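Page 47, continued from p. 46.
Same chain as before, 129 aa.
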Amino acid sequence: MYGDLEDKIQTDIKEKHYQVIEYRIGTSFFPFVQKGDAVYLDGKVIAKKDDSFRYFGRGYYRVNRKLFYIGRQFGNAPANGEIRIYVEDRSKAKPGDFPPNVMFCPVAAHADILETSDGLRVESLVYDN
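Result:
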């Protein structure tokens, strides 16, 4: 069944002539796509041909010197500075003093972090379960 779904998605991409920018962020699939002269986030246009768009990865992008994380603006890009994106694991490990006969349910999580050379730091916690 999974193979059939994947084939259907690939066929849809070819027929509708769009490009997938980001395959998956957390539990959201195909959130960023480009079709023609527009970039879409979950089906809504976020940038057009005349806009200055740059995708950094992990859900972070810039449109006309404004920084966004999955549709939410949080600051401005530095004029001549650097932007760095990285990931930190935030999963909870089983505590050493956890009772031996009790089921432990781990929570897989990570933080997508953006830092700019002018001191801006943004962390977005993503749960992978």
